[in-house]
From TrEMBL:
Active site: 53
One Pfam family here: Aldo_ket_red
Organism: Limosilactobacillus vaginalis
PROSITE patterns for the chain: ALDOKETO_REDUCTASE_2, ALDOKETO_REDUCTASE_3
Residue numbers binding substrate: 116
Upper taxonomic lineage: Bacteria, Bacillati, Bacillota, Bacilli, Lactobacillales
Superkingdom per UniProt: Bacteria
Protein name, per record: Aldo/keto reductase
Gene3D superfamilies given in the database record: NADP-dependent oxidoreductase domain
Length: 296
């Protein structure tokens, strides 16, 4: 699909974000570089990474390759990254650490900057630094990730800017409806990580029955389902053919009955590691290092 034809969602500050993007969680630096280059070459606009993933340098390399080899302009790319847990809390340290992220990404700004987790005792001061980053033009929009309603309320009570986005786990197996409803009531857009349920839904008989009816794959049906729920979706893959397949979801529509059938697959179960996360870190001590791709 042509970059200019992709569906976009307007954020609360007027910035527009593409509704489908590439995620690079668990990708090595080399794989991230190749995947980002391939994605941009195939019409993707939205690229999502994080310092936590340990591959920002690869994302920056992939972007530069697309600019130099394919004539893509930086302004045509919507780049998202996140403030690392271990950098949170101290205003000056957040600002300094983010400068390092920009250097790794080989850019002078990101289009969306997210606070990766609401780390206890630190997320409000982190947000204060992010508000300054926004005002200085180093980010076009700022938001949060993995925030529940309690912590998001606290952040808004202490901050001056309402987050533009909350990136949460969302797929047919987990809807987090209370968070979705709360965020939408405040004009905060929802972004789905793991929209394919880490692959666990690809063999679901309901999804496959609907996929067969539309002559589409299970993955395409799952992404279309999220799209029709108004989500911004981040599909992770390092395979160019799957990138192309994931992009081919704008030429069909699920019926109300089909949407309901998939809705009923909800189990409200997070990914295996999610419940192990502590709000001030996790049992493995995240906060002191950037996780390697096979770690988190």
């Amino acid at each position: 699909m042509n970059q200019n034809m992709q569906p976009q969602i307007e954020l609360n500050n007027g910035v527009k974000i593409p509704q489908l993007g590439l995620g690079v969680w668990k990708s090595t630096i080399e794989d991230a570089a190749n995947a980002v280059h391939a994605a941009l070459r195939n019409g993707y606009v939205l690229i999502d990474t994080a310092k936590q993933y340990g591959n920002e340098a690869g994302v920056g390399k992939g972007i530069q390759a697309a600019i130099k080899e394919d004539g893509i302009n930086r302004d045509d790319i919507f780049l998202t990254t996140k403030i690392f847990n271990g950098d949170q809390g101290d205003y000056d340290h957040v600002r300094q650490a983010f400068e390092g992220q920009l250097k790794a990404l080989q850019t002078d700004h990101v289009d969306l900057l997210l606070e990766h987790w609401p780390v206890d005792g630190k997320y409000n001061e982190t947000w204060r630094a992010m508000e300054a980053i926004l005002k200085d033009g180093q980010a076009r929009a700022i938001g949060v990730s993995n925030f529940n309603n309690e912590r998001l309320t606290d952040l808004m009570d202490h901050g001056t800017i309402i987050p533009a986005v909350n990136q949460i786990e969302f797929n047919p197996h987990i809807h987090q409806q209370k968070i979705v409803d709360f965020d939408r009531s405040h004009g905060i857009k929802l972004e789905a990580w793991s929209p394919l349920g880490s692959g666990t839904l690809l063999k679901d008989p309901v999804v496959n029955k609907i996929a067969e009816a539309h002559n589409k794959s299970a993955a395409q049906v799952e992404l279309r389902w999220g799209l029709q729920h108004g989500m911004i979706e981040l599909a992770k893959t390092i395979h160019e053919q799957r990138m192309k397949e994931n992009m081919e979801i704008f030429d069909f529509e699920l019926s109300a009955d089909e949407m309901k059938e998939i809705d009923e697959l909800d189990q409200e179960k997070h990914s295996l590691w999610y419940h192990d996360f502590q709000w001030n870190g996790n049992p493995d001590g995240i906060g002191d290092y950037v996780a390697t791709p096979d770690k988190w």
